[in-house]
Amino acid sequence: MLNTKNHSWTIRLNNNDMALKKNPYQTKEKVMQESTIEFFCPVKTNAGKKALDHIPIELKALDAERPIVITDQHTADKGLSKHLINAFKDSGMKFGLFEGVPKTADVKTIRELSQKFLYKGFDSIIALGAGAAMDIAKGLNIVVSGKPDDLNLLAGVNKINHRLLPFIAIPTAWGNGFEITRYAFVENKAYTSPFLMPDLVVIDPVLYKSPDTKLMASTAMLALTHSLEACIHPNGNEFINAYAYAAIQHIKDCLPKALKNPKNKQANMGIGNASSMAGCAFSNVSPGMVHRLGKAAGSMFNIPSGQCMGIILPYGLEYQMDKNASFAEKLFQAVADLDTLAKTSKSNYKQKVIDDIKQMQTEMASLKKNAIPKTLEQTEISKNSLPAIAQKAIDNGLGMDKDECIKILTAAYEGKSIA
Amino acid sequence: MHIPGYFEFCCRVKTLAGHNALESIPDALAQLNASTPLILTDKGVAGAGLIDIVTEAIKDKVNIGSIEDNIPPDSDLKVVNHLAGVYREKKCDAIIAVGGGSVLDTAKGVNIVVSEDADDLIKFCGAGAIKRPLNPLIAIPTTSGTGSEVTLVAVIADHEKNRKMLFTSYFLLPDVAVLDSRMTLTLPPFLTSSTGMDAMTHAIEAYTCLAKNPLSDTHAMAAIELLSNNLLNVVKNPDDKDGRLALAKGANLAGIAFSNSMVGMVHTLGHSIGSVCHVPHGTCMSILLPYGLEYNYHKNADFIADVLYPLAGPETYAKTPQNQRAEKVITHVRKMNQDLYDATNGRHARCFKEVLNRDGQQMVTPDSFTKISQTALGDGSIFYNPEELDFVDCMIVMAAAWEGVPLNRNKIKKG
């Protein structure tokens, strides 16, 4: 959960964030003028056919030769670890394999793994699979790169001030979308640091054969939310946009194909690419409003948070576009292809952005199997819990008036535009 | 969107950009656990007063180990070893390189020596021989062109043994690139124009050549837009700070794009003309860019067509029919060269016969085409060009680019 008080934008107080705290929707132009933009993405991406096979070479380039491979039971059950094991066949490299990651990351597993890690002389970490495997890997890396107590000491924002050991992340189609970000969540603690981002993310189509459509759609919508909110973030810049745009293009291109044919590996892998790229963009800004509302709703009702964000997205963006005239153009630039961009008049940007996202929602909602809710009403969330969701988002750092939050949530509940 | 079967993308350099970006260096150093930087530069940069601006911005917060402004344009191993000695003697723990390619290559060499405690650089030569993070390195470019602040290569000459050593490793990437408008504000118009077109070439070749990928594409498109919107304006109004910063960002984005997608024949021939006739790189790029597009037109017109949007803007894109957009890109690039020629009183060359040395003599003459074409065939970038470039075609392109006439596309082979 992102519920530590010292969350990123209360800690990383530069001038922009100060101004933002007072008025989150102040125009970007005013804030940006005098400030220095910053972008950092330490992640190398290897994506496509046989990407797994390059891992031994990549490890050598990172001066590592003895990795521990961490994966969750689900990934192991699906028989996916064998693809990674095969990749090591001709390398002569020895590695450890741990397939016992629990459903959510816990301290106990990290402690056990860290003893193994040090005792057996591992020098790097490879995480294969979904959220918890990544969180365990990140937590383990904190411990084995420093002192055992670091897991307690370094919780919070930007407390990690040194490079960690080589870490390779291999996401699969069962992720929560947070795999390739600067965040790690272990029990009730959140860790935020660019040093938690993997040195390398490997996206290989063999791992995207038969995904859970609902989870994959959730990952896609989380990536879309992160990308679009990064494009209108006050600290946004061309460098962040380069990752966000690429993520959005992947989603627009691949999500419909993946929904139509769940066995389309290329399309499924495209969602994996999008998730990773969006993670890089998202790691350079503080979480946005749709993210925070969706995260609160998801955690309270045990729904994948990407699904909640996907439902709230058009309404949250509509609200933000109404507050700031420049947002419609920024968002439209992010979602539209060149031809649409060139022929659409400015006055239509806002509606086009909303229509585009609602179109995706409709496609997901009309699936014969695995239909995905289009409104909050279609989920387990009850209408009278909306104020509690708003409150939770605010408690977790959303700097907005509660009634305004409820207005957005109500629109998303009913599937009606914010009047 | 074009998704290749397999691609890699990596840029681990942190970017700081702004009119006061230099002031962020002390924080950046602190985050890298460093406090005593060695500042490396050349006489030209120091003479232009740029080091004074850098030191003024950081001196209250960091302890500058030493400022060494003696890096020659043909820097070599001896210089590297001498500077490594200074680094150790002054107990430095980081390097700040201010300047262009030679300064940054030297800084990377010094960093290998001091980080690996190496007495012989040759051990680290080649691809991937450096396997550990080196000491903190901050790069401050003083032109908006090469994008060398985001490249993972270093070339160090060893004049005594008469050899060049090439180093390639992700650990050679600087930790931080600082783009500050004050660093390019005094760059003369004709250098601004040729370095700007150098960056433009990086971006356009990155987008249109064979090893493109979705991330190099978005970086390239952003670069083209920034460069196109600002280059001519800044050449005409050198004091435009916002324009200067936009060019610096554009060149940086272009550098990220091409170092992840490789480049094509504009670079193939450009490198060759540079080595045979010593024409500055940016000039070669400006002149050859339209020819590279014409030459590959039958292979990648669709990709070239996309470039029209960031290059000429939405209105031109919208009113140009799809099947004429690629042509329009070529015309537009030629027009940019013409506008830059006019804005620099003819110093920005449009064709090779216009490139003169200090004595007013032509640097490229038709009798050098053979050697240029032969040399080009050995350049690594040739593999990423959409159409297979051969000797005969090199000669045809050279003849057209020398004269400044459009390429006769009927004459070239189409594989």
Keywords:
heterodimer; A: 419 residues; alpha/beta; Rossmann fold; Dehydroquinate synthase-like, alpha domain; six-stranded parallel β-sheet; three-stranded mixed β-sheet; 19 helices; globular; disordered N terminus; B: 415 residues; 2 domains; 14 helices; 10 strands
CATH superfamily placement of the largest domain in chain A:
Dehydroquinate synthase-like - alpha domain
Question: Cα distance, first to last residue of chain B?
Answer: 24 Å
Shape of chain A: globular
Radius of gyration of chain B in whole Å, from Cα? 21 Å
- Total domain units of chain B: 2
Largest sheet of chain A: 6 strands, parallel
In short:
Chain A is an alpha/beta fold and 419 residues long.
Could you walk me through the main structural features you see in this protein, from its secondary elements to its overall organization?
The complex is a heterodimer of chains A (419) and B (415). Chain A is of the alpha/beta class and 419 residues long. Chain A folds into two domains: 44-208, Rossmann fold (3-Layer(aba) Sandwich); 225-414, Dehydroquinate synthase-like, alpha domain, CATH 1.20.1090.10. Chain A has helices at 8-11, 15-22, 28-32, 55-61, 73-77, 81-88, 107-120, 131-144, 150-153, 213-231, 238-260, 265-282, 289-301, 305-323, 325-335, 338-343, 349-365, 386-395, 402-414; strands at 37-39, 44-48, 67-72, 96-101, 124-128, 156-157, 167-170, 183-186, 189-192, 200-203. In chain A, the strands form two sheets. Chain A has a six-stranded parallel sheet with strand order 2-10-7-5-3-4, sandwiched between helices. In chain A, strands 6-9-8 form a three-stranded mixed sheet. In chain A, strand 8 (183-186) and strand 9 form a beta hairpin. In chain A, helix 7 crosses helix 8 (131-144), helix 13 (289-301) runs antiparallel to helix 14 (305-323) and helix 14 (305-323) packs antiparallel against helix 17. Chain B is of the alpha/beta class and 415 residues long. Chain B folds into two domains: 14-182, Rossmann fold (3-Layer(aba) Sandwich); 187-403, Up-down Bundle (Dehydroquinate synthase-like, alpha domain), CATH 1.20.1090.10. Helices cover 49% and strands 11% of the residues of chain B. In chain B, helix 6 packs antiparallel against helix 7 (214-236), helix 7 packs across helix 10 and helix 9 (265-277) runs antiparallel to helix 10. The radius of gyration of chain B is 21 Å and the shape is globular. Chain B starts with 5 loop residues before the first strand and ends in a 12-residue tail after the last helix.
